[in-house]
């Protein structure tokens, strides 16, 4: 496995995504991946995640909000709904 320096040297990206180093945090009904370079906290909207990335000479702030709403669906659930809808229409 490459070190973080080797990833930066090869890609120019600081804080590269390394799946082998992800830790999963299990809540009551969810599992949340925890990355070393990401800040997490609970807000009224849900679980909020902030991550800074430097690509080339530019700095990016990635902000995600995992909603508390019971009706919130994961991207996988949304994609499956689209596939099911297309199957019913006969377009697949």
Structure at a glance:
By secondary structure, this protein is α+β, with helices and mostly antiparallel strands. It has helices at 4-11, 75-89, and strands at 13-14, 23-26, 31-34, 38-42, 46-55, 58-67. The strands form 2 sheets. Strands 1, 4, 5 and 6 form a 4-stranded antiparallel β-sheet that branches. A two-stranded antiparallel sheet has the order 2-3.
Summarize the amount of helix as a percent range: 25-40%
Report the sheet-strand fraction: 35-45%
Number of domains: 1
| Termini Cα gap | 40 Å
Shape: extended
The total beta strand count reads 6
Q: What is the secondary structure topology, with strand pairs?
A:
Blueprint: H1 4-11, E1 13-14, E2 23-26, E3 31-34, E4 38-42, E5 46-55, E6 58-67, H2 75-89
Notable traits:
single chain; 92 residues; alpha+beta; 4-stranded antiparallel β-sheet; two-stranded antiparallel sheet; 2 helices; 25% helix; 38% strand; extended
